[in-house]
Amino acid sequence: MGELLRLIVVDDEENSLQITKEIMSFNDKSLDIMTSSSPLEALEWVRDNPPDCVISDFRMPEMDGIEFTRRLRESSRVPVILYTNQSIVEVAEEAFEAGVDDYVQKDDDARHFLLLRRRVQSVVDRHRMKLLLNQV
Fold first, then answer.
1. CATH code for the domain in which residue 87 is found
2. Which of 2, 25, 36, 124 would you label with 118, given CA atoms 20 to 30 Å apart?
3. What pLDDT is recorded for position 2?
4. Reported pTM
5. Total domain count for the chain?
């Protein structure tokens, strides 16, 4: 889809991490995807290697995706997409208040990765536009 985008996918389920990385990378060579099964490690990684976007699962043992986003927002404005099996309706208000930029519900149909890719591009483009406007 164009220029290289650096992403980190955070999910405590290794299988989900691998599937997400493999399918998204296979379909789009412009993605450089890191993965982390630990939200705490991902926070450190993002601080040292700012990506273009973070894709975070919601339910994880160390902390959920909302707490992860809150902690991330203490030091970064990098776009965050909540990527979850859970109905977002149940957590939407709290998620957006914490600073989540968008969400995508996980699906067994591999075509939903195209939606995830479009959402990544959308939040990255919005973030870049905000940065440009703030420079004026």
1. 3.40.50.2300
2. 36
3. 61
4. 0.93
5. 1
